[in-house]
Design a protein that fits this description.
The chain is an all-alpha fold. The protein is built from two helices and no strands. Helix content is 88%, strand content 0%. The longest helix has 30 residues.
């Protein structure tokens, strides 16, 4: 019974780490799309909304 519980916890841990890694990879790939122009455009939008 202990082995089953440990196996289940290990499987859940590995699945969580795998999902996190895929998220990190997609964020890193999308980071190349962020140019200065896009960042400044987002900053000006936030500035307009807070005024």
């Amino acid at each position: 019974m202990k082995r089953i519980a440990y196996s289940l916890m290990l499987a859940l841990f590995l699945a969580g780490c795998g999902n996190t890694w895929h998220g990190v990879k997609s964020d890193a790939e999308a980071a190349a799309d962020w140019t200065k122009e896009k960042v400044n455009q987002g900053a000006s939008y936030v500035k307009e909304k807070t005024e």
